[in-house]
Amino acid sequence: MIESLFPRPVVTLEATEEMWSGPLLPEEEACLSPRAVLKRRREFTAGRVCARAALEKLGVRDFPLRAAPDRMPLWPPGIVGSLSHCGDRCGVAVAREGAIVGLGLDVERARPLEDRVVALVCSETERARIASLSDLPAGLAAMAVFCAKESAYKCHYPLARTFLDFHDVEITLEPGSGTFTATILKARNQEGCAVPPRVGVLRGRFAWSGDHIWAGVTLTAPELQPGP
Question: How far, in Å, CA of 126 to CA of 134, rounded?
């Protein structure tokens, strides 16, 4: 199912049951706190084992996927990727850097968001769009918006190293085609000050799989604006 979210050059993989308790490489183990609870260890393990299996499909073998201080995965040189986990679901998307310069993947439980959370996640414009959708209940549509924003952030942050609040990104869902557009209105630097975003618009896809919703964003080289 994840493969439907990305174009063909992107390699996708969902973690199997065995991957959740698979072996970590020593460098990966060092990134995991000895005090990590079982849930955190399982999620971390599934992400790393699944990522290494996906990287093998690109010819990259036994690469330890360490974590940066901000907890972002440190992908191999020349590789762009994204991983996500939620409950008993974990997936990875990777590609060789070139025509594709950024990926974002997110998975969430497909449960309706409460009204108070919808107001935190969605702008007035987004809430109006959600209310007009006949294909999805409002609460589930809001969760799709949340998932889409998370995937957009995961694509944008590694490139720009700037932050996006929920209301800094505006999502337009197209349930009929399973696509969405993420318009980045502004970004924020380490001090929280607004800065021009490196990407104005991100495009992605979303889909349901059982009790979960997935969203994926692909950024191509022509869509990336030059850095400062």
Answer: 15
Cβ-contact 112, 139 below 8 angstroms: yes
Give the fold, CATH level 3, of 2-104: Ribosomal Protein L22; Chain A (3.90.470)
Query: Beta strand 79-86 with 100-109: parallel, antiparallel or unpaired?
Result: unpaired
Distance, in Å, from the CA atom of 130 to the CA atom of 56, rounded to the nearest integer, reads 40
Compute the distance between CA of residue 142 and CA of residue 115 in angstroms, rounded to an integer: 9
Q: What does the mean pLDDT of the chain come to?
A: 92
pLDDT of residue 176: 87
Looking at domain 107-221, its CATH architecture is Alpha-Beta Complex (3.90)
- What's the token pair of residue 38? 């079982």
Per-residue pLDDT reduced to its tens digit, 60-94: 999 999 999 888 999 999 999 999 999 889 999 99
In percent, the amount of the chain with pLDDT more than 70 equals 98
> What pLDDT, on the 0 to 100 scale, is given for residue 72?
92
CB atoms within 10 A of CB 211: 12
Its pTM surpasses 0.85: yes
Same fold for the domain at 2-104 and the one at 107-221? yes
Return d(Cα 178, Cα 174) in angstroms, integer: 6
224 and 102 Cβ atoms separated by less than 8 Å: yes
Nearest-5° Cα angle at 48, 78 to 31: 95
